[in-house]
Known about the structure:
- The protein is an alpha/beta fold.
- It has helices spanning 23-34, 61-76, 97-111, 131-136, 141-155, 176-182, 189-196, 217-227, 275-290, 297-309, 314-333, 341-356, 361-365, 367-398; strands at residues 9-14, 40-43, 80-85, 116-120, 164-168, 202-205, 231-235, 266-269.
- The chain is built from 14 helices and 8 strands.
Amino acid sequence: MSGRIAFQRRGIVEGFFGPPWSMSHRGALFDFGARRGMNTYLYAPKDDPYHRERWAEPYPRAEWNALLKLIKLAQKHRIDFVYGFHPGKGLRFSERQPVEFLLSKAEGFYQAGVRTFAVLFDDIPSRLENSDDEKAFKGSLARAEGLWLQKILERQPGSWTDVEWWICPSLYTKDPLLARMFGAFEPSFWNTLSQYLPQAVACLWTGPAVVSEKISLAHARRVARQLNHRLILWDNYPVNDLSMSDEMHLSPLTGRDPRLPEVVYGYLSNPLLQESLSLIPLATCLDYAASPATYNSQASWDWAIVEKFGVEGLPYWQTLTDFCERINKSKRTKRPLAVDPATLRRLDEAHSYLMENRKQRWAEEFRPWLHRLETAMNGAALAGSASAGARTRNSSARK
């Protein structure tokens, strides 16, 4: 296979921790994304209480009406609105009632035209916590999650012949970070899940890590063999929630194998919390998803900047993006950020650009990083003055 194909599912998973995006921005995202081949939007903001903490409860009237408008807007742009349930916290898998709650809530979405649903078990304890569940599922969380989806499909209304279901298993990557956060997972989790999960259900995973730098075709093939179900890549780029909340990811998407669509059904990007700034890297993610074989990361990023800020904005945004990458690296390596004179000049020009546009929405979103930029500039200027002073003293001493 040549690999010159697109992912069948292409779009966004609003799946971060933090304030959910505004309805107006989601609408703008649909228009923005549709022009780049986006056809799927997974609604799964962790801090929407009716998605996670109170997942079994219906939405209050005002929130429900807003969601209905959003669903219609997605349909207008030919984007499949996927509603995500996050029932894992405290869920008793062996009880009948939770499945009934889920299907009752899903009925309202079905009547609104939603035809794809996701059940998300990410970021919960790695083992069953209820004694009845321990007995019913032989101590296997993987078995419980697979059979829970089976119950959903068995009990959904017979008229729902056109519905698609997805799952995000608790083990959504083999990254050791998950075990450190949620406890050790049972051996052969994915193989066990694949035995009990209905074949029609697609599986979400995040690559070789929670936040993956590179995702190869070979890795995807290994995952596909173990899960034995259609795969959807939940790509945690450019997201910056939780421990990354002090990071800003504006660079183009890189490190994704152009041949992934050979074995991966869908590609969904988890965006920045900052609504306006998020569109910069998301443009490159959508370009990759639409045509992985021809995707050029720098050309895609350049066009995204020109489209949003004009060609005159290119040098400033390159400087700001490079600066953000350097402070991100400084945080990870725990080494201080060094700024040479040439970089200082570029930062000063970018700072002036930010000041000229300080009333723009994106500039307000960038404000925490503006403060860091000013700190770096002041530090570099002071270091330069001290160095110049030292050279003057040394010159005087030699005389």
